[in-house]
Amino acid sequence: MSDPTTTGRTPRGRRRGRRLGRRIALTLLVLVLAAGGTAYWMYANLDGNIRAAVDLDKELGDNRPPKTPTSGQNLLVLGSDSRAGANGALDGAAVSGARSDTALVVHIPEGRSKAVAVSIPRDTLVTRPECGREGGGTAPSAERVMFNSIYSQYGPACVVKTVEKMSGVRLDHYVEIDFAGFKDLVDAIGGVTVDIDEPIKDRNSGLDLAAGPQRLDGTQSLAFVRTRYGVGDGSDLGRIGNQQKFLTALLTEVKKQDLLGSPAKTYEIADSMTKSLTTDSELASLTALSDYARSLNGVDPANMETIMLPVAYDKRDRNRVVAYEPHASRLWKAIREDLHIPDEVRKSPATGG
Asked: Are 287 and 42 in contact (CB under 8 A)?
């Protein structure tokens, strides 16, 4: 593809295009900004890729936790396992419908130089608040609902409402990425190096990795963060450690790449990402996403903590887990108040082997 900044444009026009191009941004799980110079039509194309899922203020109303008194930010990041479109060929396509395969509450404290990512196990039993139905009307509150099912039954607004209810943390933004976008993103940046603690051999996905540093492509990365049978006891809890490890490696990879020096590569990454990116209405434009990501540019992956919500095996169903108290409440309190995460909440009675 020819460079659009050299095709008959004036020096002033090229400078304007480069300035505008530097506003093109990709939110990598909304923590790292990758920007580079492109032409306006590229900007408009990327802007049109982003889909708005929910107007949080409109959908959730006023009955929400208070906003943080500091400049800290909280966002919910979901990985969707929809098998629609390009996702249909991924990971065996053995699941119908769509679920929130991965859920992270990301807290960026005041100062925006570090972050905490709290993983909510998909098999956690929670109390779902009253939520709107897609066809109209409301669904009454329900207890002992598997967290993973809320997205498919009632949509992202209900997931946000549930997380706010269980944590007392007000979520400022919502970001969702689907499988196809995840795979394409990793391939666009040339793979990610992950240090594998123990050999993984998952016959379900075909993932076969030796211990030690491994360079994973998009397909391998997708299998790595989703494998249940290759780690621990085969439950969802075992793979959360993989997801957290991979998140840090991915952020580190993008952070160290000279994306400003390669506009074509930056556009490829931004295009693959935004095609599969869904956000809340406030972030659903490239300008808004770019501004927000730039505000988080000081977050260093080395300063990012990854924690699993403390859970215990449910006494009635060992295939499910419940929040472990008082540890879970102490963790959410620390997030709400920008406090140090207590050491005791980092360990969970249910570990997944």
From this structure: no
